[in-house]
Amino acid sequence: MNNLTHVIAAVSTPPGKGGVAIIRMSGSGAFEIADRVFFPISGKKFSECRPRMQIYGHIIEDGEKIDDVLATRFPAPSSYTGEDTVEIGCHGGILVTRTVLEALLRQGAMPATAGEFTRRAFINGRLTLTEAEAISDLLEAKSREQIRLSGDSARDKLSRRIEGIRKSLVGLMSSIYARIDYPDEDLGDFTDGELLSSLYNIKEDCKRLLSTYRTGRAISEGISTVICGKPNAGKSTLYNLLLGEDAAIVTDIPGTTRDVLRHSVPLGRVMLNIADTAGIRESENMDTVERIGVKKSREMIEKSELLFAIFDISRPFDEDDQLIIDAISSTAAPKIALLNKCDLDTRFDEESLRGFDVVIRISAKEGEADALKLLQDEVNRMFTDEKIVIGQDAIISSARQHATLTRCLDHIQAAIESLEIGFAQDAVSGDVERAIGAISELDGRSVSEEIVSDIFSKFCVGK
Ligand code: GDP
Questions:
Q1: Is the C-beta atom of 425 inside 6 A of ligand 1?
Q2: Band of pLDDT at residue 188, cut at 50, 70 and 90
Q3: Torsions phi, psi for 447 (to 5 deg)
Q4: Which of 85-99, 358-372, 440-454 has the lowest mean pLDDT?
């Protein structure tokens, strides 16, 4: 990463041809660099133009005009990064965009690395780490729920909640230390009972926030889901129905899906990371490739968090169906039986089905809305808390947030236990301090360089 005092510049819009492209430049000295290449048609110097107003002018280098642009300056600290920032909207041709950027670089700006604008915003206190993570998720969002989860209001709610927990813990520490360090001051009593009850309240707050992870993870990271069933049961057809496109090849030759296809698709609030597997069957006629596919299917089933077992009810229940039931019986993942081809006459004995959490009749081919809605409701009920309102409630959604908050909770619990077996307040203060350390890591007040780098490496250049 560049030294923070350098001015950085990058194209912030996606690579390729477009109507307009935005070039962003940030750092102390950004206005001076802009003054050397950007000339407002008003004749005024850009650095003296009104801030946060789009200024029309020309990019000129060595007397040669490169483009007509609209440029805006955002003086520190009221900018995305908290530094002096310039945004130049130029024509979106690939070459013209690159030429404008190169003009800025020749005048002293340095190319920004991936996520460097947001990293600067974090370092300058414009964003907490959880807010930066949410922005990264927003850029990757594949569903409306993911957008809501990483939007402004959800980000704000989470930051406030974390800040609330941190402030409560800091309040406890100061109450303990004030009485130890200034015993002669008349600070009133702070009894063990009061400390204990405050710790219990903070513990409950942490637990409530932790409990949102189930929902947050189902929305943001998604649930690994396997569709299994004997060949020709309709796995690919269901997969395509959920995806809304013909992602898997649908044929009536058994064993067509030989490899494991994967795709993320939202089903209501939950993001399903679906693997459509080869069928599971035992046959003399299987070639080596299909055998490998079947082996992979079994491995995927073992690792899955949700199983859709699909049965063709236009045929009698047979040993291949039984093979599926046996293959999934040992996994702890919730299992949904989908009785497919319900548009055809039923020749299937439902009594043979064992160990399923839910059974739904469906026609994957016809894709009727009622069956899909039922499937959606069941899956959402299994993996999310319906009382949580995305955008209104604070929700944690990443493994990092979950691990850090769990650590905070463990330290609070240790403090409670020490107090309950009769330790003095100053002996308990170490645990409270460690809890503050953990919660501070959560919003990035104290977090290792490695974690910060890992988070910002997920960003693109220009963000
Ligand atoms: P897979 O081998 O389990 O992936 O099965 P496919 O999805 O390839 O489907 C096998 C055949 O069953 C294809 O000809 C599909 O069109 C047909 N099929 C799938 N679902 C249905 C359904 O709900 N009703 C009917 N009538 N046919 C279906």
A1: no
A2: low
A3: -150, 145
A4: 440-454
Instruction: At 207, list the tokens.
Output: 């637990």
3-state helix, strand, coil in the chain (%, to 5): 45, 15, 35
Q: How far apart are the first and last CA of the chain?
A: 14
CB-ligand 1 contact for 252 (6 Å cutoff): yes
Architecture of domain 8-128: 2-Layer Sandwich (3.30)
How many Å lie between the centroid of ligand 1 and the Cα of residue 364?
7
Q: Does the CB atom of residue 203 touch ligand 1 within 6 A?
A: no
In contact, 325 and 309? CB cutoff 8 Å: yes
Closest C-alpha to ligand 1, atom 13: 252
Q: Could you identify the atom of ligand 1 that is nearest to the CA of residue 255?
A: 2
User: Ligand 1, from 274, 314, 365: best to mutate by most atoms within 8 Å of Cβ?
Assistant: 365
Instruction: Look at the pTM and tell me if it is higher than 0.90.
Output: no
Please tell me the distance between residue 261's alpha carbon and the centre of ligand 1 in angstroms.
17
Q: Do the beta carbons of residue 9 and residue 77 sit within 8 Å?
A: no
CATH top-level class for 142-212+394-443?
mainly alpha
What are the domain boundaries of the chain? 8-128, 142-212+394-443, 221-383
Cβ(232) to ligand 1 under 6 A?
yes
Q: Which atom of ligand 1 is nearest to the CA of 230?
A: 3
Confidence label for 447 from pLDDT (cuts 50, 70 and 90): low
Q: CB count, 10 Å around CB of 226?
A: 26
Residue 279, SS3 per DSSP: coil
Determine contact, residues 77/124, Cβ cutoff 8 Å: yes
CATH topology of domain 221-383: Rossmann fold (3.40.50)
On the CB side of 325, how many CA atoms lie within 13 Å of its CA?
17
